[in-house]
Amino acid sequence: LPASEFLDLPPRAGLTHVLDKGLGLTAWRELLDAAGDYVDIVKLGWGTSYVTQNLDSRVELFRSYGKPVCVGGTFLEAVLVRGKLEEYKTFLSEHRISHVEISDGTISIPREQKLALIAELARDFNVVSEVGSKDPSVELDVGEWTTWIREELDAGATKVLTEGREGGTSGMFSATGEMKTSAIVEVADAVGIDDVIFEAPNKAAQSWFIKQFGPAVHLGNIAPEDVIPLETLRLGLRSDTLKEVLGGEPAPAS
Amino acid sequence: LPASEFLDLPPRAGLTHVLDKGLGLTAWRELLDAAGDYVDIVKLGWGTSYVTQNLDSRVELFRSYGKPVCVGGTFLEAVLVRGKLEEYKTFLSEHRISHVEISDGTISIPREQKLALIAELARDFNVVSEVGSKDPSVELDVGEWTTWIREELDAGATKVLTEGREGGTSGMFSATGEMKTSAIVEVADAVGIDDVIFEAPNKAAQSWFIKQFGPAVHLGNIAPEDVIPLETLRLGLRSDTLKEVLGGEPAPAS
Amino acid sequence: LPASEFLDLPPRAGLTHVLDKGLGLTAWRELLDAAGDYVDIVKLGWGTSYVTQNLDSRVELFRSYGKPVCVGGTFLEAVLVRGKLEEYKTFLSEHRISHVEISDGTISIPREQKLALIAELARDFNVVSEVGSKDPSVELDVGEWTTWIREELDAGATKVLTEGREGGTSGMFSATGEMKTSAIVEVADAVGIDDVIFEAPNKAAQSWFIKQFGPAVHLGNIAPEDVIPLETLRLGLRSDTLKEVLGGEPAPAS
User: Do A231 and B51 count as a contact with CB atoms less than 8 A apart?
Assistant: First the structure.
């Protein structure tokens, strides 16, 4: 529960998918104590889970707060390059990781192979798949975004991420950080927003999504330090969305 | 006290007004242990205090170090939109918050109403008011900056902040982050620098203010991780201000 | 040891030189617990060690993990301006600091004097010297970079840093952050990469160095929160270097 409720704001809505790249466990614990209601899933970014020396403590911390842990998609791409899929599944199980991201943002994976992979991993894990390239020169058209999102949901993904990276520089963003707003709106019109998590790694993008789709939009790759700020954006308690969420004029003196 | 005093630097001067957006309490405690002398007031940014689940522990931590806690102005603007001013005062009192920021950076508040609000809240709280819009397209002229700062001090504000946001993108900054240096100098010439806190959320701005007005200038919206770096800028112990604060030539060998 | 080894990656290589600007000790301890294998030396940036109030606890923490502590070069430049070299040596010894950086990025020090200073401090400390200016308008040519690096190694520096600042805006970078790639390659061809630490304070620079010189390149001014991400870049577990380090095609299904 928040510190107070006197503003009579609507109840919380929208998933917040948080990107961890190795934040200290005390900082995480205290963030979950202060703002745990606003963290829905934690992604251990790309291959960080392979190199951290206290992975089990990290996973156990999130489990103790009831937060699902997902491993970033680039790790799986590296696994495929090394031909170690079975070992990867064992790694996930041994470390009690329940969610896995399946992406093809770096290497090429034929569509049929990606969909088969989603189906295969969905038997043992909760699969979040990702559409979009990490190469900013790769432009998907609206038809590709739409078809691929639908196919991946049909194959067994519980949600589909739209690529944005940690910096907002590819996928639904240009290399210089501008959002592809008309493509996003068309894709959202076609597939809806309930099954999509939009990667939105900066305040400008988060504000835009909330203004466009409302506070219940699912947002991903949120930095831990932005969990509380994002919640204020959803509630209209920060300048960027205040007028849109709360309305803009002071109430007449009573 | 700093780790050492062998450089015979002048005593510390200038207020450092720090922006909290939900940093973990252990990180805060350790920052105050390492650099508490350089923190003069802590602002709980915009509406973050409404959503954090351990607000009382946070306030108590700052109180135990003798640091006043201020709530950011956008929260009050949201309160006015919802027509909940009395409830807001109760919220502040119940959570033992002594300082409150009054701004009109997002919504329009007629001048007389803003000044009345400052006077009213100044009866129960230490009021820090803010001049400047969060909309980068709004340009105040020097006369407006000067008149409004003076009026707000006269109405009961103990200090007046000049807008800069968390990113340095409005108020005394352009949308692309350039500082409005000639306006700042003219305003400072007119109202002095003792009663003004300049929001200066990045190193370039902090360095400019210190070079322009000296180490005693009051600077605001400083990120917690920049408290120690800012102190080195004030003392001439970082490249950006070394020559201006300490002089630039090595002393002749003795 | 990393969490796992199932990908059969090559052993770790390359020094990671980390820039501290006052991070909390708990965050540091937990980073060293999670990723201590990937931290080779910690630099207390510029004059931060002078102003932090718990310097001895900070140094002791790093010593307890076997990590050498270095003081940033701008501090020494301030010391020279104040004419306090002997007091500085006492300061370092009293605080049990073993490594010292010698730079002339802010003030002018004649070459012979800088080399003499390196030789003098190398009698009592491990000296890391730095070549390059913090003034982005100062352009060294390849001959200067090469000659000066060699001279400083000959004078007693154990490694030489190439300037990049905390932001990647001077030295081997332009004021707007572009890398001087052809100069870097020519300098590296001439002096080799074993005795040089390239300051590379952002992901784009780190990725470029790893792709250009391989995972064993020594990189400096790494932010603590980038220690784990950098290790994934060295290992090919992040998109930016995956193809170059691991190769780019999925292994054929076995």
Answer: yes
Residue C44 has pLDDT above 70, yes or no: yes
Residue C1 clears pLDDT 70, i.e. is over it: no
For every one of its 254 residues, what pLDDT tens digit does chain A have, with 9 covering 90 and above?
Answer: 566 789 999 888 999 999 999 999 999 999 999 999 999 999 999 999 999 998 999 999 999 999 999 999 999 999 999 999 999 999 999 999 999 999 999 999 999 999 999 999 999 999 999 999 999 888 899 999 999 999 999 999 999 999 988 888 889 998 888 999 999 999 999 999 999 999 999 999 999 999 999 999 999 999 999 999 999 999 999 999 999 999 877 876 54
**Which structure tokens are listed for C70?**
């270095």
Q: Band of the pLDDT at C249, cuts 50, 70, 90?
A: confident
**pTM for this prediction:** 0.96
Is B100 a residue whose pLDDT tops 70? yes
Picking from A87, A84, A94, A86, the residue whose alpha carbon sits closest to that of residue A59 is: A94
* Residue A111 host element (H or E): helix A111-122
Please report the sign of the dihedral spanned by the C-alpha atoms of residue B54, residue B58, residue B61, residue B63.
negative
β-strands B99-102, B126-131: how paired? Answer: parallel
A222: three-class secondary structure by DSSP: strand
> Which residues in chain A have Cβ-Cβ distances shorter than 8 Å to B84?
6-7
- Structure tokens given for B57: 């522990």
What residues form DSSP beta bridges with A18?
A42, A222
A-C Cβ pairs (cutoff 8 Å, strict): 126
Please calculate the CA angle C176-C181-C184 and round it to the nearest 5 degrees. Answer: 115
CA distance C184 to C245: 21
Indicate the DSSP class of residue A36: G
Quote the CA–CA distance of A223 and C4 in Å, as a whole number: 25
Q: How far is Cα A80 from Cα C249, in angstroms, rounded to an integer?
A: 8
**C-alpha R_g of chain B:** 18
Distance between CA atoms of B134 and B137, rounded to whole angstroms?
9
Whether residue A83 and residue C252 make contact (CB cut-off 8 A), yes or no, is yes
| A207 in Cβ contact with A240 (< 8 Å) | yes
Residue B242, phi-psi category: left (phi > 0), alpha (psi -120 to 50), beta (remainder): alpha
Q: Report the distance separating Cα A92 and Cα C97, nearest Å.
A: 42
Contact C51/B8, CB-based, under 8 Å?
A: no
Alpha-carbon distance of A113 to A109, in angstroms, equals: 6
For residue A140, list its beta bridge partners.
Answer: none
Q: Residue A3 has what pLDDT?
A: 65
Hey, what are C40's tokens?
């080779």
Residue A6 has its nearest CB partner, among B45, B46, B87, at: B87
pLDDT at C77 over 60: yes
Q: What is the DSSP letter of A202?
A: S
Tell me the ipTM for this assembly. Answer: 0.95
CA distance, residue B106 to nearest chain A CA (Å) = 6
Q: Write phi, then psi, for B225 (nearest 5 degrees).
A: -70, -10
Report the pLDDT value the prediction gives residue B10, as an integer from 0 to 100. 87
Residue contact B3–C87, C-beta within 8 A: no
H/E segment holding residue C42: strand C41-44
Among all chains, which residue has been given the structure tokens 């109760």? B90
Rounded Cα–Cα distance for residues A182 and C45 (Å): 45
C70, containing H or E segment: strand C69-71
Contact A14, A219 (CB under 8 A): yes
| Main-chain phi, psi angles of B116, to 5 degrees | -65, -40
